[in-house]
Design brief:
The chain is an alpha/beta fold. It contains six helices and eight strands; from the N terminus they run H-E-H-E-H-E-H-E-H-E-H-E-E-E.
Length: 210
């Protein structure tokens, strides 16, 4: 199993640092491997493998193998639905089945992204946790931040809300705040650890927040 996402974020919390998670957005396994290598060279702490940008589960497996060979970064597996701005199937239109099929492949990743608005999110979270994965519950509502109760109900380990830091990085932050997290770890104390942690997503080549 890949390095624990919880361990990664808790270590960063102790050091009062953010974790930069680089999104691998190339449409080919070799391209995602190049991006992962670059991300590690630039100091990223994790990488997000975008399964929705790859053609099929075989390509996802090939990308995982290539990325693992190119980088030792902990991996977050994301299959972003069209419902929430990705290229994958929409909620109720194949998102749930495809993500479940990826989980059945036992991918060597540290965590799995599950969209909180998906009606089957609780079942998917339970399946991911049963497989030993940390779960990042993502929310793409630009008008509101999910409450601690909403996050707890899904069973996700972390909440990831779509927002943008001034550096252009995609931010994950704790509930109870109506804006994207900044570089201050104290903003992440609305939930008990390890759920209350911040990390940022951005493509390879973007500067770190400072």
């Amino acid at each position: 199993m890949n390095q624990s996402f919880a361990a990664l974020l808790l270590a960063a919390r102790r050091e009062r640092q953010l974790v930069i998670a680089t999104a691998l957005t190339d449409g080919a396994p070799s391209g995602q491997a190049r991006q992962a290598r670059l991300a590690q060279q630039q100091g990223a702490g994790a990488a997000e493998l975008r399964a929705d940008l790859l053609a099929d589960p075989a390509q996802v497996c090939a990308a995982l193998t290539a990325v693992r060979a190119a980088s030792s970064l902990p991996l977050l597996l994301t299959y972003r639905s069209t419902t929430e701005g990705g290229k994958g199937a929409g909620h109720g239109q194949g998102y749930e089945d495809y993500l479940a099929s990826l989980l059945q492949l036992r991918p060597a990743v540290a965590a799995v992204d599950i969209e909180m608005a998906c009606p089957a999110s609780k079942a998917l979270v339970a399946e991911a946790k049963a497989g030993g994965y940390d779960v990042v519950g993502s929310c793409h509502d630009f008008t509101a931040t999910p409450s601690a109760a909403q996050i707890t109900q899904t069973g996700a380990n972390y909440c990831r809300r779509r927002g943008y830091h001034q550096s252009g990085l995609h931010a994950t932050h704790c509930p109870g705040r109506g804006r994207a997290a900044t570089c201050r770890p104290r903003l992440c104390r609305r939930l008990p650890p390890p759920a209350a942690n911040c990390y940022f997503n951005g493509p390879a080549g973007r500067p770190k927040p400072h």
